[in-house]
Specification:
The protein has 108 residues and is of the alpha+beta class. The chain contains 4 helices and 3 strands; from the N terminus they run H-E-H-H-E-E-H. The mean pLDDT is 92.
Length: 108
């Protein structure tokens, strides 16, 4: 029997499902979708699982971009964009699909 914590995670699988629909996105964008669809969790947990997913090749860092703006911590923010890695297995998740359709209608 294996020892230690299991590698798979429901939270990381939910993030994979989200990225399966949106293609690529930065951390806070993924977090906002996550809490809109799934049970509440902290942003730190989502960031932890995205970082862990990069080490497991479930996610890959698409690009790191610096954007200027008026933020409480200063004039520049660094956004890390993620996409699916080679070991990701996105599922068709109706809740994510419906949430994204609803959000798209509200933007229009």
């Amino acid at each position: 029997m294996k020892r230690g914590r299991p590698i798979q995670s429901d939270i990381r699988q939910n993030i994979i499902d989200i990225l399966g629909y949106i293609g690529k996105g930065y951390g806070y964008e993924i977090f906002k979708i996550y809490v809109g669809v799934f049970p509440k969790c902290t942003i730190e947990v989502v960031y932890y699982h995205m970082k862990k997913g990069v080490t497991l090749d479930e996610f890959k860092i698409y690009k790191v971009k610096q954007e200027k703006g008026d933020y409480s911590w200063g004039p520049i923010v660094e956004k890390t964009y993620y996409s699916l890695g080679s070991k990701a297995a996105p599922r068709k998740n109706k809740r994510v699909e419906e949430y994204l359709k609803k959000a798209k209608k509200q933007k229009s």
